[in-house]
Fold this protein.
Amino acid sequence: MPSCSLYQVLATARWHGAPALMVDVKCRSPRDGELISSERLEPYVRSLVAGGVDALSTPTDPVYFDGSISTARRIRALADVPLMRKEFFTTVEQMDESAEAGFDAVQLALSSFVDPVLFTAQKARAEQLGLEVVVSVTDSLQLERAVALGANAISINCRGLAALRLESRSAGYGQVLASLVPRHVWVVLESTVSGRADIDAAARAGADGVLMGTTVAKSADPAGLLRSLRPSAAPLRAVLEPVPSAVALRPAPGPETPPGPPLPISA
């Protein structure tokens, strides 16, 4: 398990009944243009940490998101929360690159144009290196495939990315998909949050985390925005324990599962 575990953060959030607040640190958006200048990166990440962000992600694609491994290293140096890499991965070797750069997790997209053999090899290599894998899906068919492939965590992207068309989907669409995810799998909703009501709706749908990007980047007070979105005052950062795998993490209580104590969190 990595030094900062995204799985553990999601498990803790589930036990507290409130989605973990995750922020995607992207310098540019294909739709909105520049979001975070190089000069603003450090103060922006510090403000996210001050606001109690539970986990971060960053795209390293330089073409559409102005990302890079060097930018990711700058983020890693400023934040002690789990950091997930987002990328249009094309090789297995990029899993090694991710581990060496200090990422704790990688997001692997499961879309119609992804080579299933490459996807399986990347997932296996990432897990071999101790990286946590979040499988990104955009529809119910991909969701079924992700579960069949043994995904421990699934992110539901409510903004279609095929060919970077970026057509918007409603938050309700993602919430319906989230409700279909088996309870032994952690689930993160992306691109659905504009206010506290969206956080509450995500929680009702069974989301263990919400991943925000542009809304936070455009805010004049990112730390204040994060605090306003959190149902409780304290962040949900988990104190790491020697858990061998995501499968060993306790599932949410269900009809046949009696409630148990929450995973410990820091003060």
Observations:
- The first strand starts at residue 20 and ends at 24.
- The chain has one domain: 6-248.
- DSSP finds ten helices and ten strands in the chain.
